[in-house]
Amino acid sequence: MIEVKNLCKSFSDHQVLTDFSLQIPDGSVCGIVGPNGAGKTTTFRIIAGLLKADSGEVLVDDTDIRFGSKDLIGYMPDFFGVYDKLRVAEYMEFFASIYNIDAARTAEKTESLLDLVGLSGLENTYVDSLSRGMKQKLCLARCLIHDPRLLILDEPASGLDPRARIEFRDLIRKLHERGTTILISSHILSELAQMCTDICIINNGKNVISGTVSDIEYRMTSSVKLVIKVTNGIQKAISVLNSDPLADKLSYSGNEIYVTYSGSHEEEAELLSRLTEEGAGVYSFGNDRGGLEDLFLEITDSKNNTGSDSYDF
Amino acid sequence: MIFNIVCKNEIKLIARSKRMFIIMAIYNIILAVIAMLVLFYVRNITLSSGLSPYRYMMPLNIGLMSITAVLLALFITPAAGGSVAGERERQTLDILLSSRLTPAQIVTGKMMSSACSAFILLISGVPVITVTLVYGGIGLAEIYQSVLYVAFFVLLIAAVGVFCSCTFKTTTSANVASYGIILFLTLGTAILVVLSAFAVNAVSPDNSSYYVGPMILFWLLNPAVTFTGLTFRQLNYTWFNYMLATFGVPDVIISFWSILSIILQTVFICIMILFSIRNLDPLREGLKHKKKTVSRT
To answer: Which residue on chain B is closest to A67 by alpha carbon?
Structure first.
């Protein structure tokens, strides 16, 4: 378990992080989402040991990361840097030698990592002849050379074309399957929703909400939008819904009914029973909670409007 | 880890850049042209006057070593100045700092690689410098002494360059600051002490005193003055010691001038390295943070 506890950081008079705390379970892919200037990169830089927090601590298995080994972390900044005059294999060898990995193991790791990121066969290619997406992948492979416990990726998909983004997303999935704990930030929220197991929304340097993606979406949405599709008896279904006090904002189009429902899962099940009992031919009954994008906008918007410090459920 | 990884990587990058070969070519061409012109001039003089040419070899050697030192200062300062700042501009510094490498390893690696580039230039110029041995009149010991001091001077330049590189964010500002410090150390301190001596002389009652007191410490820090002292000793000229005595330097310091100045310059190099490490350490306590902590307590 990686724990970020009560981080505070200010630059001059500008408070960037205020008591920021976060728990990252082992093997999870934790996405940090927030508007520009929310404190994502500052958080990452503190965890990576590139910035000193005014107060607070980062614990890896209850050990403060400042006093532990830097081998625990693999960090890929938002602007990835490479040495253009080196060959791909030499670039990997350089970072392997930093971690005292012997030549045989380096060759083995380089081969497997380049294969993982899809750069196998390019070992002798000069880095400056790689495309941006390839350089990004090489940078990721470099981060993994010493098998870090936590991989920190600061906006890794920025500047990549759609195809490279999809490939990068698949790569994150592969790493997740290998059990790597990943902390990632991005402005492409829909992508984060697809690849993350956990999400933390940060705003004005505070952890507004964090947890698993589904948990957050469920906790955030006090009412769900039900989509009910019927083969026949649409009027009967509408009258059932009209009589239900938990149903609101009813509308329909063709044989599809849209209704905002604020009941529990059990009450949703009862509603379905009543609909079928009344003779509505329901062939589809589901909810549409909206994406992470909606959630993010809702939170950051409500924050901007209310100026409150935490999000209450 | 016998060899510094950063240095090893940097040397590999330097060796692959065209810049190093161009610099080496320019450096050797300048040295060779000057040596050949002087030798031609010496030959003509000796042929017309009948004097032995060996008497001109020691001044020629000193002249070539001085030119070598100036060229190295010109070529190596930007290399050292851009060493860490270049990493910052290339966005690779954060990667290095977030790895297992310590700021001390990065600083020493950068300094060693800058010094190595200079040593390569210095060694490449040795064949030209040994031309001064053609007519005799100069011992190998003198050549070794001069080369060793120039090598030490290279370390000083590298330390200043890396310090500026760690302190300033861009290569340009780091280079400007490096040149500024080197110029101050060589020309600036020389002028400062001489002007002080003249100022003292102007206000002294009998216009006979040139005593500059502790100001002379600046000259102990000045690598150009140290090199001049060494060469004058090689030429058996006493004028340098006489000038030091005029400025009020005690005899004991004059006797050990070269050693003392090398010790003081070594201390200066160490201070530069320590400050470089401090400036590069991302987790160092900032002054502002310390002030805040003090005020809270």
So the answer is: B283
The minimal CB distance from A70 to the residues B13, B17, B99 is found for B99
Q: What angle do CA B277, A51, B275 make, to 5 degrees?
A: 15
Distance from CA of B244 to the nearest CA of A (A): 50
Maximum average pLDDT range among A299-303, B142-146, B282-286: B142-146
Mean residue pLDDT of chain A comes to 83
Lowest mean pLDDT among A40-49, A218-227, B238-247: A218-227
Angle at CA of residue A87, ends A83 and A89, nearest 5°: 110
Q: How far apart, in Å, are the Cα atoms of B63 and each of A304, B58, B76, B146?
A: 72, 8, 20, 11
Q: Provide the whole-model pTM.
A: 0.80
Q: Dig out the tokens for B141 from the structure.
A: 């010991």
| DSSP secondary structure, A37-103, as one string | TSSHHHHHHHHTTSS--SEEEEEETTEETTTS-GGGEEEE-SS----TTSBHHHHHHHHHHHTT--H
Q: Flag whether the ipTM exceeds 0.90.
A: no
pLDDT at B145: 84
Phi-psi region of A165 (alpha: psi -120 to 50; beta: other; left: phi over 0): alpha
What is the H or E stretch that residue A16 is in? strand A14-24
By percentage, how much of chain B surpasses pLDDT 90? 38
Buried b (16+ CB within 10 A) or exposed e, B66-105: bbbbebbbebbbbbbbbbbbbbbeeebbbbbbbbebebeb
Letter string b/e over residues B38-62, b meaning 16 or more CB atoms within 10 A of that residue's CB: bbeebeeebeeeeeebbebbbbbbb
**Which pLDDT does position A91 carry in this prediction?**
93
Interface of B with A (CB under 8 A): 1, 5, 8-9, 12-13, 16-17, 87, 90-95, 97-101, 282-286, 289
**Amino acid at position B72, single letter:** L
Which residues of chain B have a CB within 8 Å of the CB of A75? 94-95, 98
pLDDT at B157 over 90: yes
| pLDDT per residue as tens digits for the range A187-227 | 766 677 778 888 888 888 888 888 887 777 666 665 677 88
Q: Between A and B, how many CB-CB pairs are < 8 A?
A: 72
| Chain A CB contacts of B5 below 8 Å | 94, 97-98
pLDDT in tens, B165-194: 999 989 999 999 999 999 999 999 989 888
B110 token code pair: 């950068």
Provide DSSP, B196-211. Answer: HHHHHHHHSTTS----
